[in-house]
Design a protein that fits this description.
With 279 residues, the chain is of the alpha+beta class. It folds into 2 domains: 117 residues, D-amino Acid Aminotransferase, Chain A, domain 1 (2-Layer Sandwich); 156 residues, D-amino Acid Aminotransferase, Chain A, domain 2. It has 8 helices and 15 strands. The longest helix has 15 residues. The two termini are 29 Å apart. Bound molecules: 4'-deoxy-4'-aminopyridoxal-5'-phosphate (PMP). 4'-deoxy-4'-aminopyridoxal-5'-phosphate binds next to helix 6 and strand 13.
């Protein structure tokens, strides 16, 4: 398929990234994953806004406007004939001889790249729910930035996968923050609870959609800290992300959540999310 490198569409085999690209050497860049449903970007503007916000927080100048990035993403989806899949895009601080110090911005431009994937919805998992483990959150203190540095997330996810689990739920000294690549929620006595959007989590676009759906449908919710203990005592647990949508978690560290099946509040939110996609 085709990819975009800087402003240009080309065959993937023709795209060249330099050995001294700062994304490759330092993880010095930011990224986004946007879902494609029926050939359309879902919450595309929100993802691009977050890409620019992440870039701003690391003082990285994206060499295109928001509108240009959006139109490049749409062109790529169309060109590759993607109906159900994703667009991955990232921007690095560019190519310069290796030094921690930022390169001179008058000589080095950010490197923008994007490609698409075909990706089905995880239907079986959405129906039956998944298992998760808990892990120490060993990440830095700017988890609000969607940066390319994902080593702690990779290690946590690998640990989950090795134990036959879908996700690792992270906690800082017993306070649940989020998943290795998702936001995490508990439901207690009908109220949805999730960590507030601080520097300790990524404010997921799916999280924002989920909380909007709660607000619009009189589902009580609270953005507040909750503990590992509250996770264990929860009536329901679920996670959200661009690719996982609203995913029930029915087992944590080998122990059943509630009855061990997706709960009514999670189901309701899944239905509302489906309606949102149909809009
Ligand atoms: N937290 C982390 C650490 C993530 O990597 C992701 C996936 N991008 C999310 C939360 C969920 O964000 P979104 O709903 O925007 O995909």
């Amino acid at each position: 398929g085709k990819v975009i490198l800087n402003g240009e569409m080309m065959e993937r085999s023709e795209a060249v990234i330099d050995m001294e690209d700062r994304g490759y050497q330092f993880g010095d860049g930011v990224y986004e994953v946007i879902r494609v449903y029926d050939g359309n970007l879902f919450t595309g503007e929100e993802h691009i806004e977050r890409l620019f916000a992440s870039a701003g927080k690391i003082k990285l100048d994206i060499p295109f406007s928001r509108d240009k990035v959006l139109s490049l993403a749409r062109q790529l989806v169309k060109e590759n004939g993607v109906k159900l899949g994703t667009v991955y895009m990232q921007v690095t601080r560019g190519t310069a001889s290796r030094s921690h110090i930022f390169p001179d911005p008058s000589r080095t431009k950010g490197v923008f790249s994007a490609y698409t994937t075909e990706a089905p919805r995880p239907e079986k998992a959405l129906e039956n729910g998944v298992a998760a483990i808990t892990e120490d959150d060993i990440r830095w203190l700017r988890c609000d930035i969607k940066s390319l540095n994902l080593l702690p997330n990779v290690l946590a996810k690998q640990e989950a996968s090795g134990q036959g689990c879908y996700e690792a739920i992270l906690h800082r000294s017993g306070t649940i923050t989020e998943g290795s690549s998702s936001n995490v929620y508990i439901v207690k006595d009908g109220t949805v609870i999730t960590h507030p959007a601080t520097n300790l989590i990524l404010n997921g676009i799916t999280r924002q959609v989920t909380l909007k759906l709660c607000a619009e449908n009189n589902i009580p919710f609270s953005e507040k800290e909750y503990s590992l203990e509250e996770l264990r005592q929860a009536d329901e647990v679920f996670l959200t992300s661009t690719t996982s949508e609203i995913m029930p978690i029915v087992k944590v560290d080998g122990r059943q959540v509630g009855e061990g099946i997706p709960g009514p509040v999670t189901r309701k939110l899944q239905l509302l999310f489906q309606e949102e996609l149909n809009k």
